[in-house]
Amino acid sequence: MKIDNIKISPNENEKEVFSIALKKSRLKSSQVKTFKILKKSIDARDKTNVKIIYSVEISKEEDKPIEVKLPKVETRKRVGIVGFGPCGIFCALYLARAGIKPIVFERGKKVDERQKSVNKFVIDKILDENSNIQFGEGGAGTFSDGKLNTGVSSPLIKLVLKDFVNFGAPKEIEYNAKPHIGSDNLPKVVKAMREEIERLGGEIYFNSKVEDFTVKNGKVVSVKTASGEVEVDDLVIAVGHSARDTFYLLRDKGVPMERKQFAMGLRIEHLRHDINVCQYGEKYAEILPSADYKLSSRKGERGVFTFCMCPGGFVMPSASEEGGVVTNGMSCFARDGENSNSALLCEIYPEDFLDGVLGGVELQRELERKAFTLGGGNYSAPVQTLKDFYSGGVKTPFTRVKPTYSAGFTPFDLNNLLPKFMLDNLKLGINDMANKIKCFNLGDSVLTGVETRSSSPVRIIRNENGVSSFADNLYPAGEGCGYAGGITSAAVDGIKTAIKITEKYTGIKIEY
Question: Nearest-CA neighbor of 478 among 150, 174, 91?
């Protein structure tokens, strides 16, 4: 039995939810075999009477496991996977569970070694272009809070969340309305998933950037890395949105692709307490979990929206190419940092690009290199108070809200960084968003530039079977190829791709 709309106050113990569900179900405690929270959210529309809302399932029957029944494949076929972010991990995991032993090529390092590369960049300003915030085991999401909320609707989402929990993620991600694993938890989860794939016979090669691949008779037959050539029977392209050299390789090979809309802008920081008060009211500001938000505006000619909001988080140096500054956000599971931040983005249309299918990449690079120069040429980021962003110049010191960009920052007028159409739309959007969260346009808020990697500017075209017309065993998948926008949707696409490949080798339609 599903019971919705169970309400308790923030001060009440969560055990009350079971008591209320028991009364509504008319069951005795001894009869209950299954009780689980399906969804948990906060209703703060009335700041004087905030409630926590639950949907639960309570039953006299044992809980049925969520699963995709994969047929066991007896084959020596080897599926190559390029990239070991969410898409590549879940694709490899589900192939391995079906008995198809994947070979994964990841340009970056294992997650523990990757953390050392990130620390070296932050402290010493020495960038490893293959092991950084963007590249390495777990993908970009490993260092970006591990947010799992998604706009995608799929029954596979429950499977993704269940798998994460089974590999060490907090149980509450299965029911929180806006789940997140936390950048402090993700490394151990990713490592556990890798070990399971290897236990099932998969091979994962780190420090193995794919430099080329060979096609014969309409099929990909091998992959080339610096270590040599490896034969494959299928190839999944599961790279992230920052794998620009892979995009160029695919283009030069003649793989069909198209430009797509994306977004760029800045990071905005407020005091976490201010956002909490605006969202929950003063009474509950320090009782409830750190508040988040998701805002959008159409006041200008283009849409402006927030993205990858990190309550109690930090702005991270996320460059993957020398001579560029890139921002991103990160939170640990506790989300207890002094500031809360979010990307503040303006829509970029294909007609804004330079010539060529990869014109969006070049537009990103242009702004990243400009931010690098304006920040001082040493990976420090240009920063500005919101007050000065509107008035121009750099006149106002950082007071309550201090920049958290950890590789250093340089006060600079961001009006000299972004194109005018972006500036105009961002300024209109910020003031409009303040109608929803009144502290959003406080003058001491901090802006940091530049945010360019929210999504891929290109889509690698595939058909309904997930295959590129370039080769009938080439599978573009996940965020970099233009089919996902975050950890969960990328993981779902990885599972779907694994299912399609399994169906190909078994001839059995897999239901989910």
Answer: 91
Going by their DSSP bridges, the two strands 234-237 and 474-476 should be labelled as parallel
Interacting residues of 235 by C-beta distance below 8 A, sequence separation 6+:
79, 80, 81, 82, 213, 220, 223, 471, 473, 474, 475
Distance separating alpha carbons of residues 103 and 85, to the nearest angstrom: 14
Q: Which residue has the tokens 């075999």?
A: 33
What structural domains does the chain harbor? 2-59 (3.30.70.2700), 79-258+458-506 (3.50.50.60), 261-451 (no CATH)
Reported confidence tier of residue 34, pLDDT bands at 50, 70, 90: very high
Q: Which residues of 219-241 are buried (b: 16+ CB within 10 A; e: fewer)?
A: ebbbbebeeeebebbbbbbbbbb
d(CA 104, CA 202): 8
Q: Is the pTM of this model over 0.85?
A: yes
Determine the straight-line distance between the first and last CA of the chain, rounded to whole angstroms.
22
The two beta strands, 51-59 and 2-8, are antiparallel
pLDDT in tens, 351-405: 998 789 999 999 999 999 999 999 999 999 999 999 999 999 999 999 999 999 9
Q: Say what the pLDDT of residue 186 is.
A: 92
The dihedral over CA atoms of 80, 85, 89, 91, expressed in degrees to the nearest 10, equals -60
What gap in Å lies between CA 431 and CA 198, rounded to an integer?
51
